[in-house]
Write a structure and sequence with these properties.
This protein is α/β, with parallel strands linked by helices. The protein has 11 helices and 13 strands. Strands 8-11-9-10-12 form a 5-stranded mixed barrel. A two-stranded antiparallel sheet has the order 2-3. Bound molecules: uridine 5'-triphosphate.
């Protein structure tokens, strides 16, 4: 019997340089996916996966992430005077969903460093990590991605990372997992090497690590001793290599659709995917997508017709 996974770390202290200029003033985790910040979707996934305490690792420039989960008395008072029960309920659901606390990473020294900041609040138990800009969509019949990893941790007792197959030409953007599929369970990939963003031409795998993890407390001692990599950051991937050697590491090929919402096209995709999964928005979103495609093909035709005329 393994200790329950009850606590989750959500590192959100990064600088979001891939999404400038908006991230100069607005944290990317607060960017809207239709009508809610992307961090709300991740918090919801964590609570729906059996997590009861969330620890946000925040940065000094991103206080509005904390504000979002706090109570806005003035607004609640106004809504209640107006009798706007629907909006009041939406806000109360966010405020009362579960325990969320926040601490500061004083400098963005990498994901490994961000996670290590939570050690005093987690202690000697297994815990989850969900990255603040990695969205994994599942349909209503499928458990959230983190719940799938937690379940597999209970079955195996071994730390888990979420794995996704990507075209080999794309693996240089990810932590790349080398290893072998478990013959008894094709969703399990027994990792025997991990390389952070392998340079093009050196790729040995198409299995990419994405932003969900279940880690054991052995990671603390490893992170504490880890030297920064060439870019000065404490890399989680480097710590995972040590964990793999000491205790083993499973790449879990989850069921769901993962989107990097910290990237421009990924962000657009996340908005459309989320809208398509919401019953009340689905038909209008499909109609909008068809309309835009139609408009685009008409304007391409008219562009080529006018250039032919010339
Ligand atoms: P990313 O590398 O995707 O985010 O880290 P980033 O550093 O904000 O973005 P770019 O690459 O400059 O565009 C994944 C997650 O880890 C957090 C980020 O906030 C993001 O949610 N992170 C990253 C930290 O909390 N601290 C860090 O030092 C680095």
């Amino acid at each position: 019997m393994h200790l329950q996974v009850k606590k989750a770390i959500l590192p959100v202290a990064g600088l979001g340089t891939r999404f400038l200029p908006i991230t100069k003033a607005i944290p990317k985790e607060m960017l809207a996916i239709v009508d809610r910040p992307m961090i709300q979707l991740i918090v919801e996934e964590a609570f729906s996966s059996g997590i009861s305490q969330i620890i946000l690792i925040n940065g000094h420039h991103k206080g509005n992430i904390e504000d979002f989960f706090d109570t806005n008395y003035e607004l609640n008072d106004l809504l209640s005077k107006k009798g706007d029960i629907a909006n009041l309920e939406i806000l109360e659901k966010i405020e009362k969903r579960g325990f969320i606390c926040s601490l500061r990473q004083k400098a963005a020294l990498g994901l490994g460093h961000a996670i290590l900041c939570a050690r005093p609040l987690i202690g000697d138990e297994p815990f989850a990590v969900l990255l603040g800009d990695d969205l994994i969509f599942t349909d209503s019949h499928t458990p959230p991605a983190l719940a799938q990893l937690v379940e597999n941790y209970y079955k195996t007792g071994i730390a888990q990372v979420a794995l996704m197959q990507v075209p080999q030409t794309e693996i240089h953007k990810y932590g790349a997992a080398e290893g072998v599929a478990d013959p008894k369970n094709s969703r399990n990939f027994i990792i025997n090497n991990l390389v952070e963003k392998p340079p093009k031409g050196t790729e040995k795998t198409d299995q990419a690590v994405v932003g969900r993890y279940v880690l054991t407390p052995a990671i603390w001692g490893i992170l504490e001793k880890l030297a920064p990599s060439n870019d000065g950051e404490i890399q989680l991937t480097d710590a995972l290599v040590h964990l793999m050697k000491n205790e083993g590491l499973i790449g879990y090929r989850f069921c769901g659709s993962r989107v990097d919402a910290g990237d421009r096209i990924g962000y657009l995709r996340a908005n459309l995917t989320h809208a398509l999964l919401r019953q009340e928005l689905r038909q209008d979103t499909l109609a909008l997508m068809k309309e835009l495609l139609q408009e685009d093909s008409t304007s391409v035709n008219s562009r080529s017709t006018s250039s032919e005329k010339r």
